[in-house]
Amino acid sequence: MNYQNPIIKGFYPDPSICRVGDTFYLVNSTFQYLPGIPIFKSQDLVNWQQIGHCLTRPSQIEMKGVECSLGIFAPTLRFYQGKFYLITTNITKGNFIISATNPAETWSDPIFVNIPGIDPSFFFENERVYLQYAHEAAIWQVEINIETGALLSEPKIITLGSGGRDVEGPHLYRIQDYYYLLTAEGGTREGHMITLRRGTSIWGPFEECPHNPILTNRNQPSQLLQNVGHGDLVEDSQGHWWLVALGVRSVNLKHHLGRETILMPVTWDEAGWPVVGKGFAEINIEATLPQANLQLKPTLQRDDFDSDPLSLKWNSLREFIDDQYSLTERPGFLTLKASQASLNDLGKVCFLGRRQQDFKCEVLTKMEFNSEKANEEAGLTVYGDRNHRFDLCLREDKVVLRKKSLDIVAETEANAHGNQIVYFKILANQLSYQFFYSFNNIDYLSIGETYTKHLATEVINAPFTGVYLGIYCTGNGYETQAKAYFDYFIYESQE
């Protein structure tokens, strides 16, 4: 069967995977966005259904005031003795463990583990639990109590990597007679790669795989996928092995959709070393998938805001904003209550966004907004970070397109002629965004366009995230009672 990478498109980086019976579960890092750590399930490894988030309430996560690409770093997901365990890093608070018996429902409050570094991972063996983590250019290991987080041994360096920079993302597996230690190296951009080593003791020493790196696109400039790395291995119920990893789809050596989840088939050579595809990642893959005929329902493309709770696609920035939006105040509409904080700020801003998952797509929304003051505005935003974004909004009696890049702000205005109901549309392709507005959903007027590369990671230096398509309502630094009502939000892939 032929499938295409990425298997989960858009900003879904640092995948970690486990299998329970015939069902696979996968999580991703989320950095400054909430709810945190989406969890997906699949039976064929290609069609994934999001079933929830792991971090859904303030008692689990606190990220007030964090900048872009801080917050929640790479998680690891494992299933052990009837329970799901997840460990991750809140980069300003430390490493912590949460757990759940049903991953689609409520996860526990965090148990913090007194270790430094990032990218913690579990290994369970004979009623004992070992943690691996990245710290000071090395991979460390320590035994812990999984219920309390207490350290049960002295942390020990188990590898310095294979010579690449930024050795991180460790995962340990017991496969037949060996312990295999998987790592990421080379940094998460052009030099990214996955390396592997093995040993007969959990504490090492570990010998290097003779064909390291086992997966990298650093010397494959013709491939659309680049920056490939940070992987996790899983075995299916038929005994076939797979590797999930992150990669980006690059346009003219730049990417703006974020780091995405890819899948590669794994075979084993006669010496017992894994071979990942051709050693580099491709878009089109031919492989025998488990449950190959399974088809899941398509993901939601149109949100009419007719039911509570909000779709799992939506995220806020840095803080939960349950008090700033409502699906019941005006039935059939999403009501946004203007925040004092603006999109420029690190405060609690009234913003809800979903990931842009396709180069070529169309976004359409219908909004009602009675703006009476110059500081009040609401609308759509193409959001890279707070300093790099494009806002299409209604402000007083004007439709405004704002393009912001650090201290450079350019605005284009059009007269709204007293209309309080406006339709906003954005057309995107690999190279550009085009912005339109209408007052009748028939006659659309262009208000401008700009280049996607202005939001590329390589330009804005937001190294870990990707573009969001969002709606917002703000008083721009002033307290206000303004509200915006969104009748629907449509995201249509045109690829």
Key phrases:
495 residues; mainly beta; Tachylectin-2, Chain A; Jelly Rolls; 8-stranded antiparallel beta sheet; 6-stranded antiparallel beta sheet
Descriptive notes:
There is one protein chain. It contains one helix and 39 strands. It is mainly β. The chain folds into two domains: 2-286, Tachylectin-2, Chain A, CATH 2.115.10; 302-493, Jelly Rolls, CATH 2.60.120.200. The strands form nine sheets. Strands 25, 27, 28, 30, 35, 36, 37 and 39 form an eight-stranded antiparallel sheet that branches. Strands 29-38-31-32-33-34 form a six-stranded antiparallel sheet, with no helix packed on it. Strands 15, 16, 17, 18 and 19 form a five-stranded antiparallel sheet that branches. The mean pLDDT is 96.
Taking all Cα atoms into account, the compactness measure Rg is 23 Å
Report the sheet-strand fraction.
Answer: over 45%
Question: What count of domains describes the coordinates?
Answer: 2
Q: What's the number of extended β-strand segments?
A: 39
CATH superfamily heading of the largest domain: Glycosyl hydrolase domain, family 43
The overall pLDDT average reads 96
Q: What oligomeric assembly is this protein in? A: single chain
Q: Structural class, from secondary structure content?
A: mainly beta
Major sheet: size, sense and barrel closure? 8 strands, antiparallel
